[in-house]
Design a protein that fits this description.
three-stranded antiparallel beta sheet; 3 helices
């Protein structure tokens, strides 16, 4: 792994991931993206009763791809509008 000694070293390693929440485009700097998946619709389905409960409100679909369990979240429910406004105001 790369040694980080300065702010410039850190910033050089960042990658931007963007997504839409409440019709706002949000970008998040992260240190590492290990993989980006294209998920075929035929491997996903609505969450079953096994994941029922308050936490399932955040889950849009579940699925299996090869030997992986996929859980897709509804970011509009994960973050509330106040949190999104706060994220939007940050530089």
């Amino acid at each position: 792994m790369t040694e980080i000694k300065t702010k410039q070293d850190y910033e050089a390693l960042l990658q931007l991931v963007s997504f839409n929440i409440y019709e706002k485009k949000i970008g998040v700097d992260i240190l590492k993206v290990s993989e980006v998946l294209r998920i075929p619709k035929n491997v996903t389905e609505a969450p079953s009763e096994l994941v029922a409960g308050i936490e399932s409100d955040y889950i849009t679909t579940v699925g299996k791809l090869e030997d992986r369990l996929l859980i897709l979240l509804d970011l509009n429910k994960v973050f509330n509008t106040e949190q999104i406004e706060l994220l939007g105001s940050m530089n």
